[in-house]
Amino acid sequence: MRPVRSREIRADYDRTSIVVYQAYGPHIGRPAVEQGRFVPPFSRTRMTWIKPSFLWLMERSGWARKAGQEMVLAVRISREGWEEALSQAVPTSADRRVHRDNDEWRAAFRHARVHVQWDPERTLRGRALDARSIQVGLSRHVIDRYADEWTLDIRDLTPTVHRIRRLLGDGHTTRAAALLPRERVYPLPAELARRIGADV
């Protein structure tokens, strides 16, 4: 098996789309699932973060137990939209692989429409790994594109999340792992990889 590199995107994707995950309270999550797209009270005026790593979101949301994160949504978006977002992204911290110095990074970040952050990937039991997982912050300048054009489908994964957590609690790790979404390395164009500080 190929070793996992530190910064690579691992995701559930097909030829035309990629799945990203978000966690919301039911007042946002239920209408989104019912409509198959984001509708009010989903906010288009604040940054929204999307994450292709299911286990990273499980850590972030406490397996859908944190307040305001009780519903886990699988949002299938177009790969065209995903890569358009990455093409506008600037890392949230200075990275010499992306910018020559702090001044260049600060100038780019000041006007960034999309943010990229690399956080420790997680195991099924929540242990932090050396490998990093990407999360992408969409500003109010691109949220309309995300909600109205890029989003193809929204599914409620909350029942699956609860089932996996119960299996883990009962010691059935193998059965829990079998329910995880299938994630594999996403083939990033070299130019996009360099822009976001991913391993090439």
Structure description:
The protein contains eight helices and nine strands. Strand 5 (89-91), helix 4 and strand 6 form a beta-alpha-beta unit. The longest helix has 12 residues, at 158-169. Helix 3 (79-87) runs antiparallel to helix 5. The relative contact order is 0.23. The protein is an alpha+beta fold and 200 residues long. It has a four-stranded mixed sheet. A three-stranded antiparallel sheet has the order 2-4-8. Strands 1-9 form a two-stranded antiparallel sheet. It has helices at residues 26-35, 54-61, 79-87, 102-110, 143-150, 158-169, 173-177, 190-196; strands spanning 10-11, 17-24, 48-50, 71-78, 89-91, 114-122, 128-138, 151-156, 184-185.
Give me the secondary-structure topology.
Layout lengths: L9 E2 L5 E8 L1 H10 L12 E3 L3 H8 L9 E8 H9 L1 E3 L10 H9 L3 E9 L5 E11 L4 H8 E6 L1 H12 L3 H5 L6 E2 L4 H7 L4
Parallel strand pairs: 5-6
Antiparallel strand pairs: 1-9, 2-4, 3-7, 4-8, 6-7
Helix pairs in contact: 3-5
What is this entry, summarized?
The protein has 200 residues and is α+β, with helices and mostly antiparallel strands. The protein has helices at residues 26-35, 54-61, 79-87, 102-110, 143-150, 158-169, 173-177, 190-196; strands at 10-11, 17-24, 48-50, 71-78, 89-91, 114-122, 128-138, 151-156, 184-185.
